[in-house]
Design goal:
Shape: rod-shaped
Strand order of the largest sheet: 1-2-3-4
Helix content: 40-55%
Structural class: alpha/beta
CATH architecture of the largest domain: Alpha-Beta Horseshoe
CATH topology of the largest domain: Leucine-rich repeat, LRR (right-handed beta-alpha superhelix)
Radius of gyration: 39 Å
Oligomer: single chain
Number of helices: 3
CATH superfamily of the largest domain: Ribonuclease Inhibitor
Distance between the termini: 130 Å
Largest sheet: 4 strands, mixed
Number of strands: 6
Order of helices and strands: HEEEEEHEH
């Protein structure tokens, strides 16, 4: 009985791996995920084995996860056009995969154009040079470094302002302490003088 349950579990579990990924539609070896407003984070992580056609066009993809298409060796057609591809460091996998495909068998590079950065807008991803991609990566890192430096500068300025406020407060407190000490000394001196006058007056009384 346990052996039968194990066989059923293996069978249906294996069948589950061939299921059509949501929200795509499947017909035989064709998987259609086009026009679903899919972003890179909502893209299915795998597709049924034996898939020969994969339609990912007209979505909101900016990059492909590393290794997504490598295990699907049966692919003969992949449509990737109509997506706002970001041509920075994240496009290196897509560029590498496109360049590995035989030009006569797979037309995946058609319409796969850069949407950003502005310096590469409209360029075909497959024809980007490594230097151009790395330059865009450096540009992105420079922006991040500049933002970090600005935040650090603001932090330093706030700390300096707080330090100045503390110094001003301490000086004012010191000045008030001196005034209070001087007032107290005057009061004590005046009290001593009054006491002496009272003593002299009593002593001289007939």
């Amino acid at each position: 009985m346990k052996e039968l349950q194990l066989l059923c579990l293996l069978y249906f579990g294996g069948q589950g791996s061939f299921a059509c990924p949501h929200p795509c539609t499947c017909h035989g070896s064709q998987v259609n995920c086009s026009g679903r407003s899919l972003t890179s984070s909502w893209l299915p992580v795998s597709f049924p084995p034996g898939t020969t056609e994969l339609h990912l066009h007209n979505n909101l993809l900016t990059t492909l996860p590393n290794g997504l298409l490598d295990k699907h060796t049966s692919l003969r057609h992949v449509s990737l056009h109509g997506n706002p591809w970001t041509c920075d460091c994240g496009v290196l996998y897509l560029r590498s995969w496109l360049r590995r495909q035989p030009a006569g068998e797979l037309s995946s590079h058609i319409g796969v154009n850069c949407s950003s950065p502005p310096s590469l807008r409209g360029r075909l991803v497959v024809y980007l040079t490594e230097e151009e991609v790395l330059d865009s990566c450096h540009y992105w890192y420079c922006d991040l470094a500049l933002a970090s430096q600005l935040c650090l500068l603001v932090f330093v300025l706030v700390q300096a302002a707080l330090l100045v406020a503390v110094i001003v407060f301490l000086r004012r407190f010191e000045r008030l302490s001196k005034v209070a000490r001087w007032t107290m000394e005057e009061s004590l001196t005046a009290g001593d003088v009054l006491s002496e006058n009272e003593y002299v007056r009593v002593y001289k009384r007939p």
